[in-house]
């Protein structure tokens, strides 16, 4: 039996039709926490205040978004267009009351006031300024931002402040003041497209959803053991032998589409070329580059539960480096971000140790330890990227193995005792990495591919604070630049990606954007459910948080196909 919440909710829901009506999950467990009013934003801004009980109304024909840009800027142009569509969704609310006896106050303008009005930046980067302020009043709304990137974040917040009233009018609170800026500069999502190929429209949709959460880095784990779906001009046979099929390939044109889609949303695209492990698919075109594992005096013997018969690069083969250089330079020309991710995770030494040729080579080189071999390999690959004028991100393994890395290398932390008992704690890794002067990105507690009943991990994701048990000084704290959720795709493809990611990733997005004190999941769940309904209306098939319903709308109830689950409405065809 479902039952209304307390008096508070009755008051709200009688006067303003919320975007969701929320109920007990089970009657015997009353819901804790403070309910969020309609139009509550996610992630929560740094500061928000509301001093009036009045509502302003919005009507598409009476509302404009203007910008003070002095140069033509496609980023601003496309976002004004897009957010007009987001703010005024296609008419699913067919029962709008036509005539009104009361005089309504309309909000007629949103002014974008960008300080750097003569700069239309080409691409988002690690230094972009995403801060903005927003004031809503009956004279109009003003959005102040240092750069276009802040304007994008502010437009998103503005769109979330609008909501439908009981009589299906679009409204916004009068006299709202918002001062907002991100807590962390790096707020990412890794998507693995090698275990399962994720079609381009699905990736584009996830970029939309990322922008709805102010996430700003798409880490594209594009290739792995299972497949190599990236088109390479220099070595077409790597793709031919590594892809699942001809249809399962990202052409250069596809990659450019993704980068363009991301650019317009203020999202960086960082590609990963993972090696020396995770290269089985790559090795199909260059079998001689893989280390042959030995057992009982015989080659090509799999090492059960650690490595296949040949799946890790053989660093002693000097011919591998010129080929890697060609591949990475193709990456450089294709992907625009200043960073390339070089993987270097899970480099287990068993296969190298089993191989007599590797042992002989190491003797010749006076390498007494296998991490010297890894260091030899990693430093060569890092040098290639440096020579190409790019910076590297690596998984923490290479650091853990004592490899000295170039200054400016970013280290991604994925290990934790909760992932494997022999690991250390992620907080200790963060302390160590930043102590040694490297920038750190936290992923360990945010492996979003792990699921349990009801998908309620969002509680766990939400309660993580990257600075928990951080013992470094201020300089070290600055090196903890943010975090990244990882969606490993062994059990995910385009079909179930929406509900695997959303709104669970929303929880992580708030942790990375909002101030640390916004951390009560019992309060957050109401706002999160509102965000979930917002996502549904925007074509993202997010999973439910609480019991109840999404205003007048459920996924699948729309009379037209405007909520196409794959192609979001309102954006230009790229
Ligand atoms: C909100 O603004 C009003 C009016 O300026 C001020 O009195 C009040 O302290 C503010 N509230 C918060 C929480 O900042
Ligand atoms: C809108 O205004 C009402 C009344 O002042 C307030 O209770 C509510 O918190 C406001 N909503 C938001 C999203 O700030
Ligand atoms: C439409 O609105 C009218 C007037 O508010 C109401 O009487 C009617 O029940 C509504 N119809 C539906 C399907 O909600
Ligand atoms: C927003 O307002 C704060 C506080 O008044 C101010 O420090 C900051 O510079 C403003 N930011 C922008 C982007 O205008
Ligand atoms: C971003 O711009 C605002 C407003 O000018 C400024 O106060 C803030 O310090 C800038 N933030 C960063 C990280 O540069
Ligand atoms: C793939 O192409 C490269 C260079 O074009 C060549 O050296 C290599 O032998 C080819 N691999 C196979 C398996 O034919
Ligand atoms: C290895 O050590 C020997 C003896 O010290 C030295 O002669 C040789 O040059 C070293 N080899 C390399 C590759 O450094
Ligand atoms: C951190 O560094 C200390 C000192 O070098 C070391 O003892 C410890 O094992 C490291 N912690 C982890 C989790 O690697
Ligand atoms: C922080 O330290 C406390 C006390 O040792 C421990 O219980 C907790 O799990 C630690 N949290 C993290 C994130 O490491």
UniProtKB/TrEMBL annotation:
Catalysed reactions, semicolon-separated: Hydrolysis of terminal non-reducing N-acetyl-D-hexosamine residues in N-acetyl-beta-D-hexosaminides
Active site: 346 (proton donor)
SS bonds (residue pairs): 73-120, 293-351, 533-550
Keyword Membrane: no
Record-linked InterPro entries: Beta_hexosaminidase_sua/sub, GH, Glyco_hydro_20_cat, Hex-like_dom2, HEX_eukaryotic_N
Keyword Signal attributed: yes
GO cellular component: lysosome; membrane
Transmembrane spans: none
Biological processes per GO annotation: carbohydrate metabolic process; ganglioside catabolic process; glycosaminoglycan metabolic process
Keyword entries, A-Z: Disulfide bond, Glycoprotein, Glycosidase, Hydrolase, Signal
Location of the Glycoside hydrolase family 20 catalytic domain: 184-515
Enzyme Commission code: 3.2.1.52
Stretches assigned to coiled coil: none
PANTHER family for the chain: BETA-HEXOSAMINIDASE, BETA-HEXOSAMINIDASE A
Protein name: Beta-hexosaminidase
Organism: Brachionus calyciflorus
């Amino acid at each position: 039996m479902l039952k209304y919440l307390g008096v508070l909710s009755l008051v709200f829901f009688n006067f303003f039709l919320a975007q969701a009506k929320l109920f007990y999950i089970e009657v015997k467990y009353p819901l804790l926490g403070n309910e969020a009013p309609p139009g509550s934003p996610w992630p929560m801004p740094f500061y928000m205040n509301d001093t009036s009980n009045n509502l302003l109304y919005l009507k598409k024909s009476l509302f404009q978004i203007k910008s003070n840009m002095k140069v033509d800027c496609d980023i601003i142009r496309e976002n004004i267009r897009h957010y007009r569509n987001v703010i005024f969704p296609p008419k699913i609310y067919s029962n709008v009351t036509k005539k009104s006896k009361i005089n309504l106050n309309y909000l007629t303008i949103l002014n974008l006031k960008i300080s750097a009005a003569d700069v239309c930046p080409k691409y988002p980067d690690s230094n972009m300024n995403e801060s903005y302020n927003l004031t809503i009043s009956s004279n109009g709304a003003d959005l102040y931002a240092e750069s276009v990137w802040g304007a994008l974040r502010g437009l998103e917040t503005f769109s979330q402040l609008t909501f439908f009233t009981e009589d299906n009018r679009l409204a916004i609170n009068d006299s709202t003041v918002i001062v907002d800026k991100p807590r962390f500069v790096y707020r990412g999502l890794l998507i693995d497209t090698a275990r399962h190929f994720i079609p381009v429209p699905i990736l584009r949709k996830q970029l939309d959803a990322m922008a709805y959460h102010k996430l700003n880095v798409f880490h594209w784990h594009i290739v792995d053991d299972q497949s190599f779906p990236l088109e390479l001009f220099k070595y077409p046979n790597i793709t031919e032998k590594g892809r699942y099929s001809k249809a399962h390939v990202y052409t250069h044109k596809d990659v450019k589409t993704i980068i363009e889609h991301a650019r317009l949303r203020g999202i960086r695209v960082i590609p990963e070329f993972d090696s020396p492990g995770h290269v089985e698919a790559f090795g199909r075109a260059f079998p001689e580059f893989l280390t042959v594992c030995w057992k009982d005096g015989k080659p090509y013997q799999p090492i059960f539960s650690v490595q296949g018969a040949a799946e890790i690069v053989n660093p002693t083969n000097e011919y591998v480096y010129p080929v890697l250089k060609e591949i990475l330079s193709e990456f450089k020309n294709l992907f625009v971000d200043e960073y390339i991710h070089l993987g270097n995770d899970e480099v287990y030494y068993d296969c190298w140790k089993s191989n007599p040729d590797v042992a002989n080579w190491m003797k010749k080189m006076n390498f007494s330890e296998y991490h010297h071999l890894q260091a030899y390999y990693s430093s060569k690959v890092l040098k290639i990227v440096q020579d190409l004028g790019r910076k590297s991100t690596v998984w923490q393994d290479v650091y853990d193995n004592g490899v000295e890395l170039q200054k400016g290398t970013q280290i991604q932390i994925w290990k934790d005792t909760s992932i494997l008992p022999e690991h250390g704690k992620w907080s200790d890794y963060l302390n160590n990495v930043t102590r040694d002067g490297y920038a750190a990105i936290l992923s360990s507690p945010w492996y979003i591919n792990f699921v349990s009943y009801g998908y309620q991990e969002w509680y766990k994701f939400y309660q993580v604070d990257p600075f928990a048990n951080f013992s470094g000084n201020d300089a070290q704290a600055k090196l903890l630049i943010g975090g990244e959720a990882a969606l490993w795709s062994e059990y995910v493809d385009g079909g179930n990606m929406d509900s695997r990611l959303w709104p669970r990733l929303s929880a992580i997005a708030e942790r990375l954007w909002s101030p640390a004190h916004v951390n009560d999941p019992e309060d957050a769940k109401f706002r999160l459910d509102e965000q979930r309904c917002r996502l549904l209306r925007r074509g993202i098939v997010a999973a439910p948080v609480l019991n109840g319903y999404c205003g007048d709308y459920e996924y699948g109830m729309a009379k037209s196909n405007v909520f196409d689950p794959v192609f979001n409405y309102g954006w230009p065809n790229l």
